[in-house]
Design brief:
The chain has 389 residues and is an alpha+beta fold. The chain has 13 helices and 15 strands. The protein binds oxa(dethia)-CoA.
Length: 389
Amino acid sequence: MNLPLLLFNCFVILFVGKTNAFRFLSTIDKRTSRSESTFRNSKSSVTMSRANAAQGKSFLNARIIGSGANTPPNTLSNDDLATFMDTSDEWIFPRTGIRRRHILEPNQSLVDLEVEAAKQALEQSGISPDKLGIIIVCTSTPDEMFGDAGAVALRIGASNAVAYDLTAACSGFLFGLVTAGQFLNSGSYSHALVIGGDALSRWTNWNDRNTAILFGDGAGAIVMEACENNESGILGFAMHTDGNGREHLSMKYSGEEVTLKSSKGHKITSQKYDFMYMTGSEIYKFATTVVPDVINEALQNAGMTIADVDFLLLHQANIRIMDSVAKKLKLPLDKILQNLDEHGNTSAASIPIALEQAVREGKVKKGDVIACAGFGAGLSWGAAIIRWE
Ligand code: UT7
C-alpha cells in the first residue's frame, strides 16, 4: 500500500470511530446535526411511507377490540420508601408524578397478572380464546427465562395460538402492538392478544434511590382483530433503536466464573444478572428529545397532523417527560393519559394499563385518535397512531 493511500485509510478509520462514539450524544442533542443512525432510520421510514402510499395505505388493518389490566394488591408508597431509604414524598412526587407503586409479593407470579389482564381483554372483546392465532407477551422480567407466553396461552385456553415473548424493555408493548398488527394486516391471523407485563421490583436494587422510587409491577393486555375498514386500526407507526446509549439503562448478565471438571478445565460463567442500572438524567434527555420526533414521524406516516390527535398515551415514566413532550408537540396537557401517581413506571405494562383505565373511566371514546409512544432500554423508541373502536 502506498503512503497517501495508507494516510487516507487511517483518516477514514479515525473518522468513522469518532462518529460512532458520539452518535448517541448527537442523537439526543437536537442542537447538533442529526446522527447518522437517526438519519438512516428516518430515511427508511420515509421510504416505507411512500411505499405504503403507492399501495394507497399507510396503516395496518388491525384494530384493538378489548383491553384489560391487573396489578398486585400490595402497594409501596413514597412514605413507605422513606422509612428505609434516604428519600421523601416531597422529593419524589414533584419530580416524577409518582405517589405509590404496586409490587408482587413472593407468593405471587407475573403470569398470574398477565392471565388476569388477558381474560379481561378477551371478555371485553367478546372473542373466545380459541379464536386467537397469536399471543405476544412483551416482558423483560418473565417468571422464567424461556418466557411466559406458553403458560399464559395454556391458562387462558388459547389452544390454537402460537405464543412467544418479545423483549424490548419499556418499548416492548409498542413494538408488540406493531408486530401483532403486521400479522393481522398480512392475513396470517384473524385475532391477536398482546400483553405487556413486567415485575421490575424483582430486579430493583432497593438501596439505589435513583431507580427504586420509579418502578412498579403489573400487566396490561389488548385483543386485536384484522379489519377492512381504512378508518380504524393502526393508522401509522415508526420505530427505532440506537445501541449507542444502551449503557444508560441496563440489567447486565454478570455470571460467576465456574471451572468445569473437564480434562481441559473449561471455564464458563453461570447464572446471574445485575440489578437494573440507569443514568436517569441521560434517559430523561433522550426521552424528551426522541419522543416528540417519533410521534411526528408516525403521524406523517399516517398522513395526519398533531391537530388530529385526541389523546397522548406515553410510556408512564415521569410526568415531567409527558409534559415536556406535550409542550413540544403543542398539545394541551389535559390530553395526556396518565396514572403515574398510582402505578409508577411498570415498564412494558405501562401503556396498556393506562389505556385500560382510560377506557374503563369513559375518557377514551369510540373514534378517538390516540398517539402512543414507548421508549427505554436498547435504547429503543417508537410510536403508533391508533383509532379507538
Ligand atoms: O422506563 C425507563 C425510562 N426511564 C426514565 O424515563 C427515567 C428518566 N429520568 C428521570 O425520570 C429523572 O432523571 C429521575 C426522576 C430518575 C431523577 O430526577 P432528576 O431531576 O434527574 O434528579 P437527579 O438524578 O439529577 O438528582 C438530583 C438530586 C441529586 O442530589 P445532588 O447531587 O443535587 O445533591 C440526587 O442525589 O437529587 C438527589 N436524589 C434524590 N433525593 C431524594 C436522587 N434521587 C433521589 C431520591 N430522593 N430518590
